[in-house]
Amino acid sequence: MKSTMQPYQLTVTSLMHHGARLFGGTSEVITWRGDKARHATYAEVAERAARLANALCLMGVKPGDRVATLAWNNQEHLEAYLAIPCMGAVLHTLNLRLTPQQLVHIVNDAKDKVIIVDGSLVPLLAAIREHVPTVEHVIVFGEGDTGKLGDHVTYDDVIAAQPSTYDWPEIEEDSAAAMCYTTGTTGDPKGVVYSHRAIWLHCFGVWGAFRLDERERLLVIVPMFHVNAWGIPYVAWMLGCTLLLPDRFLQPEPLCAFITAERPTFTGGVPTIFTGMLQYAQANNADLSSIKRAICGGSAVPRALIEAFRDKLDIELIQAWGMTETSPIGCIATPPPGVPVEEEMDWRSKTGRAVPGVDLRIVGDDGGELPWDGRSVGELEARGPWITGSYYGVEAPERFHDGWLRTGDVGVIDSRGYLQITDRSKDVIKSGGEWISSVELENHLAAHPAVAEAAVVGVADAKWEERPLAAVVLRPGAEAGPEDLRNFLDGKVARWWLPERWTFVTELPKTSVGKQDKKVIRQLYTDGKLDVQEVGKAAR
Ligand code: ADP
Description:
The chain has 540 residues and is an alpha/beta fold.
């Protein structure tokens, strides 16, 4: 028997109309300019999005064509987020931190027809322009030196010449709305294509999981070039939250100045950004008091960071898990009701529970599902309406298993459904046939008062096959040696987990989205480029 419900299509267009109609005159989009903010109402942004759609249409953009953006988090980027999917084209956000070779690869792979570029990023595009022949038009917004760019038009000029309304087409919910390439932490970038339906449902999932409403002033630190900024711009727009966009001012000092001036209530970012913000805020007495909650993910969030946010800044830092392939929100770590306050942190420092709509399972080496007992370690697999079932243009059968996405993350799930990621399959340390969790070691190290940041990677060992190497960045002025840190870990983890190899560095290598780049740390070690101190022996 069929239902009596309408075949209403779940599209970004419906979200756009909802935000513009209900909050057009009241909610704002605020972009930071380094010293002051630029304000626009939702109505102004929606009108400019309609003008942009008209301009793109005139340039020959047809349904299904890819229109790329190379931009920071700002108003024009949001206009592109609305105009491109709603006109039936596909928004392709280019990760501006990829290497020029990777950028050339992904623009050609996606066959982008138009690129909308931030003035400050023109040199990056100019350097690859002649290698991306599918690109027919370049639109530049904001200030920038366009001398070496070749043919281009100016955003404000082209949209000013266009009508202020657009005849938005009817769109099938399963058609492509946006695409994003993985950052290639564990291989070549691969394209993931989000449907209108996936974005729509993901918005509803995030709305519920983050408990947002129009009173929030939402600071989007996560780059809009990475997984649609975790879907936050769309969910904010749908709910009428005021959106605060930091543009390229992501260093702690200007970011804190933006926060003090425009008073966000909620934000989201990777742990490295929040670690920097915390250090700066403490050293400079920055006023971050408007922020009540922040979502943190993209890599494991150290317990010490969640505690410091609570104790020093009075901010609830909430861990979440996700990946480009999962739109990205998959899990969120809020404690279950009724746990004593002193146990809350144990739950918050886990990876989290699946948000409704996402199915998770842990699978053993033999492909069989493992029990949710908090002990059985295996690869995490995921499925759901906003989880990719393939990659764009490449066969990758090894990444899928009976319709589930193989995440490449390794961990356990307990009887209440709380996931704990212990590693990535490429990062796991297998010592004498047993797993050592780099995430757990890093977590404990981050809690040492002298440690600003720590990464643990597996390196080859003649006797044990692999042993952990700890790479540590000390806080300015702080002192601690390998023995101090080894002693500090002793008793917190199994003795045979204690690293013998230690290296102290001023900075850890980071990926294009600010995560620790363990591939590079391992390579530096293999190439003998790290100054490694050895203490103790592997005990078994
Ligand atoms: P890339 O895979 O190229 O780093 P993504 O942004 O898609 O780019 O990263 C997804 C990965 O980030 C996950 O597979 C996982 O390894 C890691 N990750 C994200 N959130 C968490 C978290 N809360 N805890 C541990 N790892 C996380």
